[in-house]
Amino acid sequence: MKKILFIEDESALQRAATQVFAEEGFQVFSALDGELGLALAKRERPDIILLDLVIPKIDGFQVLSEIRQDPAIKNIPVIILSNLEGSADVERALELGATTYLVKTNYRLGEVVEKIKHILQNNHLNLNCKE
After folding, report:
1. How far is C-alpha 1 from the chain's CA centre?
2. pTM for this entry
3. Sign of torsion, CA 42 40 80 57?
4. Contact present, 53 and 78 (Cβ < 8 Å)
């Protein structure tokens, strides 16, 4: 079973997404702030991380930066799922190592699930090619 870590401070979105992801067969770990999200990433080693940028304690940019600097978790794909849609925010996230950037208002949860599956499938193929 593939593991998703969803770092998001909107509890309603967190609950809805967790239900959808679980129905799709994913094991879901949730964090309402960046500090807990980073700790869960290190402890659980998820297959993919969904990360909001505007979150309490440690913002998403810092969480992403710390993930990319940690050898144990640096290769985990990270999807930014945020309401920030300015080009500077998108560029910064991608420069820090985000796999892709999705603006929340432009995607339904079903579409996010398809993106996750696509990234996990491609990541799996890339890992197989390196072996």
Report:
1. 17
2. 0.92
3. negative
4. no
Question: What is the per-residue pLDDT for 130?
Answer: 37
Alpha helix segments (H runs only) across 1-131: 11-23, 34-44, 60-69, 87-95, 109-130
Structure tokens at 131: 């072996």
Mean pLDDT across 62-83: 97
76 close to 38: Cβ distance less than 8 angstroms: no
- Closest residue by Cα to residue 27 from 55, 51, 47: 47
**How far apart (Å, rounded) are the C-alpha atoms in residues 105 and 33?**
20
CA–CA gap between residue 97 and residue 91 (Å, rounded): 10
Q: What is the pLDDT of residue 129?
A: 39
Q: Under DSSP, is residue 1 helix (H, G, I), strand (E, B) or coil?
A: coil
pLDDT in tens, 34-58: 999 999 999 999 999 999 999 999 9
